[in-house]
Amino acid sequence: IFSNIFNSLFLLFGAKLFSYIKFVYFDKILGKKLIMFSIPLIFNLMFGWFVNSFSRFYINVSIGSTANGIYAFGSKFSGILLQFASIINMTVIEDSIIFRKNKNFVARFEKNIENITSLFFNICFVLMPSISFYYNFISNKDFKSSIIIVPILLFVAILNNTSTLIGNIFPVFNKTSKILLYWFGLIFTVLRVIFIVI
Asked: Judging by beta carbons within 10 Å of its beta carbon (0-12, 13-18, 19+), is residue 138 exposed, middle or buried?
């Protein structure tokens, strides 16, 4: 949160963006459209944050803080892969927006997902020997044991990225409201499961 606030202030004052911002140019209709477009995407980000935070909370409560530290250390490598994936995903969204009216859009979209998923599997095949080599220099036995979960976390990162790529189709066609319906259904299902268990 602090880094985002700092970045915003730096851009606002460092690049003198405030000289371009005038409330006279504010379009209420466009603002309403942007809010309606963005609200479902907020749930996407919240769920991603929840899954990441809940897994660490669950590990901390059920196994202990040492296991949580081991998990955090092992997940650094999949985190690097996900950062790289977020950059590539932006280009896929841009490509989808540019070619969305083409008659061969679906074939192109599928090919992009197939190529990028294949690329990430190849990256993982290269990363694993490098990561294994890196682990030889770790002296802490607890951190060294996290190598067992690294391939699993890398695979989860690939699945996460592939689902994100597929989900990009909704914003491209301004159908983010469908994502909102999905989240309401998911929340309702989770609540039903909780009440059944209780």
From this structure: middle
